[in-house]
Design goal:
Length: 382
């Protein structure tokens, strides 16, 4: 299909490099048969319904404030479960202990990290069993570390608990301090509901997924660094098409992932984020293992990029959607072992600067609609 659209791309000042004369002849022959299509009509693009997806952050998500006069220091009684709404403070060195939240379904709990080192060699370090919502607040000016054990088995009903911080309720990580999380067994931070991150500095190292929010992952105004043994950031609700999304707003995100950098089951929406991703073994290695995925940014339905800076070096596609991709603004630099940007259906570009410095195929989609922006690409095939 890219060959059929080659004339269109030339008209729109798309620069194609590293194409052989034979490939150019094949493209011209295809165009002479009347099979190319040029259109800037985006009204027929069928995108996912995002009306029930929450691309916002509440004041409580963003603030990280708490009333110190009402906060309870539980550092010396850390093994006792938190069973009621309130603000609880952790400080100092706490070892071989899991902080358990077993509050009511309408209770909001805030856990303040105040220069704490929390380690549990026998399981997760924080386990949120029940609550309406939990806020883990990283106090301003503090440095905190949380880690789980390298091997353990913990099952709660039908739930396998397998992360340094594991929550069965909505979870927000906020505050302007620094938090480092080590998922020594499998994952770094997992929420079986929403996972929201607005913390100042969050560093995650994990054997498997770095950040996993089943219903959604939202990251705003944070500096997030992830080194993951599988996916960097993932939202994986397969049952509800209004969930399983990822939203980035004004965040700085640096990911080194053995598999996908960012993976959304439904929509991946990025607005003004600064994202750097190294996925798989990088573009210098050809894609041979089709059983695994090594994409930079990946979505099951749609990808929406409306500003920001993106630098992706991926063994598989740089940006990949099983449905549509819409790019309205932003600076995107891609080096890919396969496609630079791939949409299973429509790829729409109306603004921004795209530089694909290495790829097998540069831009791919059932339809490619380009109405603005600056595009430069190098491809060894199309």
């Amino acid at each position: 299909m890219i060959r059929r659209l080659f004339a269109t791309l030339l008209v729109l000042s798309v620069v194609l490099s590293a194409c052989s004369a034979e490939q150019q002849e094949d493209t011209t022959a295809s165009e002479s048969n009347g099979t190319s299509e040029q259109t800037d009509d985006t009204s027929s693009i069928e995108t996912a319904d995002t009306t029930e997806m929450d691309f916002t952050f509440s004041d409580k998500d963003l603030s990280g404030e708490y009333d110190e006069s009402e906060a309870v220091d539980i550092s010396k009684n850390a093994s006792e479960p938190i069973t009621a709404a309130g603000t609880y403070v952790l400080t100092g060195n706490i070892t071989d202990t899991v902080i358990t939240v077993a509050a009511g379904d309408e209770d909001k709990v805030q856990i303040v990290l105040n220069n704490v080192t929390l380690e549990n060699a026998e399981g997760p370090a924080i386990y949120i069993q029940s609550a309406d919502k939990v806020f883990i607040t990283v106090k301003d000016g503090t440095t905190n570390t949380i880690s789980d054990g390298t091997s353990y088995s913990m099952i709660d009903g039908e739930t396998t608990v397998d992360a340094a911080i594991f929550s069965k309720a909505d979870l927000t990580i906020n505050g302007s301090g620094t938090l480092s999380v080590s998922g020594n067994y499998k994952h770094g931070i997992v929420s079986k509901d929403d996972l929201v991150v607005t913390a100042g500095n969050l560093n995650v190292t994990s054997q498997k997924v770095g950040l996993n929010g089943k219903d959604c992952v939202k990251i705003g105004s944070s500096n997030v660094n992830i080194a993951a043994g599988s996916d960097g950031i993932r939202s994986d609700n397969e049952e509800d098409t209004s969930r399983g999304y990822i939203y980035l707003e004004g965040a700085t995100v640096n990911i080194t992932a053995e598999n996908d950098g960012i993976q959304a089951e439904t929509v991946l929406n990025s607005n003004g984020a600064d994202v750097t991703i190294n996925a798989g073994s990088g573009s210098e290695n050809s894609l041979t293992d089709t059983e695994e995925s090594y994409k930079g940014m990946k979505a099951g339905s749609d990808i929406l990029i409306s500003g920001g800076n993106y630098t992706i070096n991926s063994q598989d596609d740089g940006i990949h959607s099983n449905n549509t991709i819409s790019i309205t603004d932003g600076t995107i630099t891609l080096s890919s072992g396969d496609d630079g940007i791939h949409a299973d259906t429509d790829l729409s570009i109306s603004g921004g600067t795209i530089d694909i410095i290495k790829s097998y195929e540069g831009l791919e989609g059932t339809r490619i609609l380009i109405s603005g922006g600056t595009i430069s690409l190098v491809a060894s095939d199309d």
